[in-house]
Task: structure prediction
Amino acid sequence: MKILFSSKCLEYRHPGHPESPERISRVYESLRNEFEFVKAKPCKEEDILRVHSFQMLQAVKNLEPWVFDPDTPPEDNIYFYASLAAGGAIQAAELALSGENSFSLLRPPGHHAIRTKAMGFCYFNNIAIACSKLLDSAEKTAILDLDCHHGNGTQDIFLGNPRILYVSLHQSPLYPGTGLTSQSNCVNFPLPPGTTELQYLKILETGIKQIKKFNPDILGISMGFDTYKNDPLGGLALEEKSYKKISEIVFNLQIPCFSVLEGGYSKEMPVLIKNFLKP
Result:
C-alpha cells in the first residue's frame, strides 16, 4: 500500500471550517512510519477539463465569487491545492493499474464538485478526474463512494456513461439531498441515520455484487470516514473496526484498487484510516 501525500495541502485553512489541515496532519503523523509515502504532484489543466468546464477552471483560478459557496470559500492559491489533490488521485490510480494498492491522503476532497461549480468543501472532483483519465487505458471503471454524504458531483459528471459504474452508500436525509434513487449507471443506497455496522455491511455486499456484475478493470473508492459514529458531520453508526471489515470486503474483489480521501472529521481519523489501510 502506497500513500500519496504532500505537506503543501496543509498550507491553507479557513477559520472554524471543519475541513482543516489538522484532519490530515494527524493522520500523516500516525502513518508515516508504517507506510511508504509518495510525493503528490499537481495535475494538468487538461486533466481537470476532462470533467469540468473551462469557465469553472478559470473561475477557481481567478477566485471569481460565482463558482464558490459558503462551505467552499475562495481561499488564496486554492487552484494549486485543488490541482494537487486531483493529481494525487491520478497518481494513485496509475499505481493501482501497475499492481500497487494506493491511497491519496490529500485535501481538499472532491466528490461534491459538479461540472460547473465548487461545492460542499470540494473544488475539483478528484475521483472523477482520475477515473476519466483511466478510461484512456481501461475499458471500464467502477467508483464506490463510501462517504456519509452522496457524491452528487461524481454522479453529475458520469450519469449515463456506460464505461463507468457509480455505486454510493450514503446517509439520507443529509447534505446535499441527492442520491435518493438509482439512475442509469449510478446505483444509490440511501441509508437512514443510525445505520449500524451490521446493516451497513449487508448493503455494501449488495453494492459489491453490482460491481462484480459490471466487471471493471479497476475500482476507485471515494473513501469518507464521516460514517463513523462519533463524526460531527454525520449520523451513521460505524465502529472503529468497521473500516477493517469494509477493506476486507473491497479487497476480496481482487480488482486493482485505489482510494481517495473524501470526508471524515472526528478525532479518531488516524485510527479509522489505519484500520482501512491495514485490514
About this structure: The radius of gyration is 17 Å.
